[in-house]
Amino acid sequence: MFRQKLAACAAAAxxxxxxxxxxxxxxxxxxxxxxxxxxxxxxIVDHPAIxxxxxxxxxxxxxxxxxxxxxxxxxxxxxQGSMPTQLQIAKKFAGMRPDLLVAISTPSAQALxxxxxxxxxxxxxxxxxxxxSKLVKSMEAPGGNITGTSDQQPFGPTLKLxxxxxxxxxxxxxxxxxxxxxxxxxxxxLKAALADYGLELEESTASQxxxxxxxxxxxxxxADVILIPTDSxxxxxxxxxxxxxxxxxxxxxxxxxxxxxxxxxxxxxxxxYKLGRLTGKMAVRILKGESPAAIPVGVLDTQDxxxxxxxxxxxxxxxxxxxxxxxxxxxE
Length: 332
Hints:
By secondary structure, the chain is of the alpha/beta class. It has two domains: 38-151 and 272-299, 3-Layer(aba) Sandwich (Rossmann fold); 156-269 and 303-331, Rossmann fold, CATH 3.40.50.2300. The chain is built from 14 helices and 13 strands. A seven-stranded mixed β-sheet has the order 7-6-8-9-10-12-13, sandwiched between helices. A six-stranded parallel β-sheet has the order 2-1-3-4-5-11, sandwiched between helices. This is Putative ABC transport system substrate-binding protein. InterPro entries: ABC_transpt-TYRBP-like, Peripla_BP_I.
């Protein structure tokens, strides 16, 4: 430790001689003295729900004293919807040997888990089925080097909402990426729940965000309503689904509340910023020495109702006043 500090002082002296600003001296001195914490965050694609979760993580770290540029070196990179790119990012981040890896979305978590090979702690956010995705052994006792938060939620309340707003609906369309374990698990859960609500499922798949518009068009003549699961590939292009819904008068429901701000008619879902804050709390615990193996997977215990009045009118749906009054947020 003495030699490390001595080397740091020498480095700081060298920086002073070069005339670099004082803040750079401090940041480099901390880094060389081993006082900077290194965290790397990656996610499969950019969209508001993932952005909110990422912000929640970073804000929680800052509140706990891990402030970027002061005590924290933060590396953040999006895969831009490409799984090969995500695998490359995961390999690069694992090779950097940070103090903690953070993944937002199922494919990002799976990529980091494979690249880290059990040697670097990982915390994930917005993973719908952590057990089915083989990220953890169980929700209560994850095991290994990984834990995090899930956005898993029952479909029953959403299906009940759909039948209330569109009582004549018989066929429910769903668009998802069949290559995402998280999405496949959601569709299976949806199939199991549909019978109780008198609905049949019409599926349409999109392996890339660019394929979502065509997937939505294929449902226009087959489905009475469309439900978008928490699938990053599809959510990234939710506007294209909304456009189809408005033109064809097919109501579009979502599983994340940010999609309602972007045009979906309604959603019963989580606040992803709050989910990110919960993920950040777990990250802080790990950085302070706790093992991910012993930290249960976290979930939010409330669902928020978001409604979009403009989209409801465009899609031919009348929203009852009492539902508007109980909504967490109404988009005019």
